[in-house]
Design goal:
CATH topology of the largest domain: FAD/NAD(P)-binding domain
Largest sheet: 7 strands, mixed
Number of strands: 18
Number of domains: 2
Structural class: alpha/beta
Oligomer: single chain
Radius of gyration: 23 Å
Length: 423
């Protein structure tokens, strides 16, 4: 009886509190409702997936690769250790991906551009005029609402039949007769994936490293950027955001990434106290510019990049200045008029490997070439090409490098990508 009276008193108190607050002119936020689908065998920690293509890493290249593989008919799973897709564009907050155009025309399109364009249109934003050649490269950057982009990427994965596993990452990769067995771990989940092809889109080619295949890394890394907004409202899709250089930022492993994030947040807190301005926006983590790159079947040099070399097996264009960040800042070196670099398939294939392909900033390249290749539009182009090559290889029972380049080009064009013309 005492408990019942206590509950009645509590309900009366809450009602009076709510009505009293409303009467005082304060607004109570409304609550919307959504119901998550029941996850089969959610209480069981052991999960097994049999797929054609496993994409590891759902960042800039990874989600595009997964959507493309799914659209090409491959049964596809994407494993991402964070809570959303998009990587640098969303979690990193660099929501002005570029560059999709060069010298008055669009040179990168396909799935990445589809996502960018739709997120801008849904947000009521504006797209740049690619027919205009800007005086400075950043003037044709596309301002994108990072939050819309992330959920649109999920929608397109679902439409392509791609399964997503957040909060998970591979712990062991083993060769099998038909491809790979990849054992992944998340909290409360041990997932075993049997797949024909792996697309490594981890940024630092971490699966390639787990396999003991050669990778390249500089002794000194470019600074990372921690993005935030101080003193005024951040308007996603409308303005750029404040940036803090985190020197020594290293995404090699969880310990070095943790140190970069702690350093960035500590510095931003000190800035808030010093400037006495409100912290209006803070990204969840540092954006990293470089770590490991693969040693591929070919290596893109800075001369290849700046000369606009058209490789025989080119699968995408790239366009951005040579853009090496240092402790004193960055001085981009623009490409000469008419020069548009290309990316060869062989630069996505780890040397002497089978049934694995990479996409993104870990592309086989020297440091200066990589400083231009690492930007989002180029990584999206690589991701789409990797998705095509992996899907075709899985279907044919072969490896990506043995898929005829003409078949890759044909499927890329069918899915809206711009394929480099032959030299």
């Amino acid at each position: 009886m005492t408990t019942s009276n206590h509950d009645d008193d509590r309900r009366d108190f809450l009602k009076k509190s709510v009505f009293g607050t409303a009467a005082a002119g304060m607004v109570i936020a409304s609550t919307s409702h959504a119901t998550a689908q029941t996850v089969a065998d959610a209480a069981e920690p052991e999960v097994t997936n049999d797929v054609d293509v496993l994409v590891v890493g759902g960042g800039t290249a990874g989600h595009v690769a997964a959507i493309q593989a799914g659209r090409a008919g491959a049964k596809t799973l994407i494993v991402e250790r964070n809570s959303q897709l998009g990587g640098t564009t969303t979690t990193g907050g660099v929501a002005f991906p570029g560059l999709f155009d060069a010298w008055g025309k669009q040179v990168i399109a396909g799935i990445g551009w589809e996502l960018v364009k739709e997120s801008v249109e849904l947000d009521g934003g504006q797209l740049p005029n690619f027919a205009r050649v800007p005086q400075r490269h950043w003037q044709n950057q596309v301002y994108t609402n990072q939050f819309l982009y992330a959920i649109l990427a999920e929608e397109k994965c679902a439409q392509a039949g791609v399964d997503i596993a957040f909060y998970e990452f591979p712990q062991a990769v083993t060769k099998t007769d038909n491809g790979w067995q990849v054992d992944c771990v998340g909290f409360g989940t041990n997932r075993r994936v049997r797949c024909k092809q792996i697309i490594d889109c981890t940024g630092g080619a971490e699966v390639v490293g787990m396999l003991g295949l050669p990778r390249l890394k500089e002794e000194e890394r470019q600074p990372g950027s921690f993005l935030f907004m101080l003193g005024k409202e951040h308007q996603p899709g409308r303005n750029q955001i404040h940036r803090l250089y985190v020197h020594g930022a290293d995404s090699t492993n969880s310990r070095t990434a943790t140190e970069a994030n702690l350093t960035g947040r500590k510095s931003i807190l000190a800035k808030v106290r010093k400037e006495k301005k409100r912290l209006m926006h803070l990204q969840p983590e540092t954006g990293f510019r470089e770590s490991y790159r693969i040693e591929g079947e070919t290596l893109i040099t800075v001369n290849d990049y700046t000369s606009g070399r058209i490789f025989d097996d080119a699968i995408s264009y790239a366009f951005y200045p040579v853009d090496l960040h240092t402790k004193t800042g960055v001085r981009p070196k623009p490409l000469k008029p008419g020069k548009v670099p290309t990316i060869p398939l062989r630069a996505l294939i780890p040397k002497a490997s089978r049934n694995i392909i990479v996409a993104g900033r870990c592309v086989s390249s020297d440091r200066l070439a990589n400083s231009g290749l690492r930007v989002q539009a180029s990584c999206m182009g690589m991701g789409q090409a990797a998705g095509v090559a992996a899907a075709l290889a899985a279907n044919a029972g072969t490896t990506p490098l043995e898929v005829p380049i003409s078949e890759i080009h044909t499927l890329l064009r069918e899915h809206g990508q711009i394929v480099p013309d032959k030299a």
